[in-house]
Design brief:
Blueprint: E1 2-6, H1 11-22, E2 26-31, E3 46-49, H2 55-64, E4 69-72, H3 79-84, H4 86-107, E5 111-115, H5 140-159, E6 162-167, E7 170-172, H6 188-196, E8 203-206, E9 218-219, E10 221-223, H7 224-237, E11 243-246, E12 254-255, H8 256-267, E13 273-276, H9 291-297, H10 306-320
Parallel strand pairs: 1-2, 1-4, 2-3, 4-5, 5-6, 6-11, 7-10, 8-13
Antiparallel strand pairs: 9-12
Helix pairs in contact: 1-7, 2-4, 4-5, 6-8, 8-10
The structure holds nicotinamide-adenine-dinucleotide (NAD).
Nicotinamide-adenine-dinucleotide (NAD) binds at residues 7, 9-13, 31-36, 51-52, 73-75, 77, 92, 96, 115, 117, 168, 170-171, 182.
Length: 321
């Protein structure tokens, strides 16, 4: 297939592009490089430096390259920034997303895989979080992802645009060529590795008095390669109609201290830790269920051991220094 990956110069998008190419598909990456890196785009993909709001470029990309399916990863995704500047998030995550759907409609591309987030559920009422659980986002980031998911349902009903939204928490780890390089970095694994490398003085842990096995928060980490496989499987699943799948690590998640311990073991370096107070709005435990994804997409995480994830991230980190 000919597949367009929006945001394919970003962390997860570049891994998706790599997986698509490995499976024999032709890939066009469209990215404005606001957050992504040109050198993250796999060599086998065609790169278009454009913004989603640039309707002529978008339409031209879909038409000229005879795109059959789109994997939509381009978005702004910083929770704190979304609270401070919701307009930016509505414009990019909803407005530009709808521009993409309109271009697809105009050209007759009818399959889309959307990278959503489990943040659409807000504070979970039970764990692990399943697709049918209530959606009540607590920040504009989650809200804008949910708004786009909802638009997708109506676009299917009215225009026959088939889509699969994938909701997950924390992508982590690296492929052989592509890894996490966010700026600012807000994700735990790269932050811990920066501390191991001496690039930051310490890792701040927000609370160690939660009702968890070591008192620190439990989160669901999925290897970026497993996520890439899920996105590729979801393209085929579009045929069956519009749907939503939650993706989880399949186990009980990892505590903050377990991630730090894994990084100490992998890097064999000191990682200074400072325990601070809890952050408001941080639930003790967040894990998603991937039971439906396993049953219906045939997906399960293959590299969900936190040490394997950290090892791959460290290999990427060392290669880039
Ligand atoms: N990283 C995670 O843990 C995580 C978890 C759940 C969902 N997601 C979702 O997965 C997707 C990718 O996340 P990521 O961590 O790889 O982020 P990222 O910032 O590395 O990648 C996003 C890419 O989109 C590009 N982009 C943004 N707006 C654009 C626009 N208007 N036009 C063209 N390109 C644009 C950026 O330049 C960047 O390369 C996002 O939609 C995010 O919400 C990420």
């Amino acid at each position: 297939m000919q597949v367009l990956v929006t945001g394919g110069a970003g962390y997860i998008g570049s891994a998706v592009a790599e997986e698509l190419i490995a499976q024999g598909h032709a890939v066009v990456v469209l990215d404005n490089l606001s957050k992504g890196h040109r050198d993250a785009v796999p060599a086998g993909a065609l790169f278009l430096h454009a913004d989603l709001s640039d309707a002529p470029s978008l339409r031209n990309a879909l038409e000229r390259h005879r795109i059959e399916a789109v994997v939509h990863m381009a978005a702004d995704s910083l929770v704190g920034e979304s609270v401070a500047d919701p307009a930016k998030y509505y414009a990019n995550n909803v407005g530009n997303g709808l521009a993409l759907l309109d271009a697809m409609r105009a050209v007759g591309v009818a399959k889309l895989v959307f990278s959503s987030t489990v943040a659409v559920h807000g504070e979970p009422q039970k764990l692990p979080i399943e697709e049918g659980d209530p959606t009540d986002p607590i920040n504009p980031y989650g809200e804008t992802k949910l708004a786009f998911e909802r638009a997708l349902r109506w676009y299917d009903r009215a225009y026959g645009l088939r889509s699969i939204a994938l909701r997950y928490f924390n992508a982590a780890g690296a492929t052989e060529t592509s890894g996490e390089r966010h700026d600012p970095e807000t994700h735990l694994v790269p932050i811990v590795l920066q501390a191991a490398a001496g690039e930051r003085p310490e890792v701040q842990v927000f609370g160690n008095d939660y009702p968890t096995r070591d008192g620190t928060c439990i989160r669901d980490y999925i290897h970026v390669r497993d996520l890439a496989r899920a996105h590729v499987l979801a393209i085929a699943a579009c045929e069956r109609g519009t749907d939503v799948y939650n993706l989880g690590c399949g186990g009980d998640g990892s505590t903050v201290l377990e991630v730090i311990e894994a990084a100490r073991a992998v890097t064999k370096r000191e990682i200074p830790v400072r325990i601070g107070p809890r952050r408001p709005g941080d639930p003790a435990r967040l894990v998603a269920s991937s039971e439906r994804a396993a049953r219906e997409l045939g997906w399960q995480p293959l590299e969900n051991d936190i040490r394997t994830i950290v090892e791959s991230a460290w290999r990427f980190y060392e290669r880039r220094r």
